[in-house]
Amino acid sequence: MSMKKKKLIGLTKRRALYGYIFILPFIIGFLSFMVKPLFQSLMMSFSNISAGPNGFQMVRSGWENYKRAFLIDPEFNRMLVENITRMIYRSLATIVFSFFVALILNQKFKGRAVVRSIFFLTVILSSGVLVGLEYNNSMMSQLKETIEESSNANSVTTVIESILLSNTGGMNGVGNRFFKILFEIIDSIYDVAMASGIQIIIFLSGLQNISPSVYEAAEMEGCTAWESLWKITVPMVSPLIPVCWVYTVVDFFMRTDSEIMKKIEDQLSIQLNFGFSSAMAWIYFVVCMLLIGISSLIISKVVYNYD
């Protein structure tokens, strides 16, 4: 084995060691505080729980809670499908938005530091404490509603949507569905921007690692800016897309303002159906993991890996 290859293997092992050290606090915290509640929640999903004089009593019920979620409950299946559909196009919109914002922030122009600060505020605003303030604080909610009502964006998009949908009345429904999704993304640009802070930072770090000499060589060969984007920038940043995608999907599924999360919370805290609530939560979790696995496998097929 050559000396160069030995150094490369040593560098790879050192980086892997640093990575494990970096995530070690999370691993310790997960094993210490999360494994037992997860196991208890799984057991609760296969049980009926009732409150008695001696506390809570757990009676095994098999798959009854899961059958109730899929076959009896009139809302769960609809909410699950709608949430998955919304997750797909919202996550795609977030990835595209984050990438092009990172492209803009990577350019050299006057006031770049100020613009970067404005966009990076979404990272701070999307932190756990301020998200709680946003959705639980009446003043913050009223402020958001006031901003949306004072803007003409919703009215303009509504007019354009009605015009386009009326002109596509003869289509087979696919076009109408596409336009509805498109305008829903436009109307939810606030949520997309709030969810794109981390992704912007990840894409920006990848763009800054691309050597300027690559673009200079491409320009000398007559490559246009559009060709450089698709033949240099996108392939070299593509290894970061799976990371951003997984983060975006998990972040979307953890949103507490979705209908299905509200239903799970209502069954737990109001209806006191602990077993049924746990079953719905586990179904939601498994669906999330399956979607992450399948979509990551598909994305990995088109990612350009380079040394």
Describe this structure in words.
By secondary structure, this protein is mainly alpha-helical. It is 78% helix and 4% strand. The protein has 16 helices and 2 strands. It has helices spanning 3-33, 35-45, 64-72, 76-105, 112-125, 128-136, 138-150, 153-167, 174-187, 189-194, 197-208, 212-220, 225-237, 241-253, 259-269, 274-302; strands at 47-52, 55-60. A two-stranded antiparallel ribbon has the order 1-2. β1 (47-52) and β2 (55-60) form a beta hairpin. α8 (153-167) packs antiparallel against α9 (174-187) and α14 runs antiparallel to α16. The longest helix is centred in the N-terminal third of the chain and has 31 residues, at 3-33. The chain is elongated, with a radius of gyration of 24 Å. The two termini are 19 Å apart. Mean pLDDT is 75; it is low at 133-137.
Largest sheet: 2 strands, antiparallel
Sequence of strands across the biggest β-sheet: 1-2
Rg, alpha carbons: 24 Å
Strand content: under 5%
Q: Any low-confidence stretches, pLDDT <50, length ≥5?
A: 133-137
**How many helix segments?**
16
* Estimated structural class: mainly alpha
Mean pLDDT across all amino acids:
75
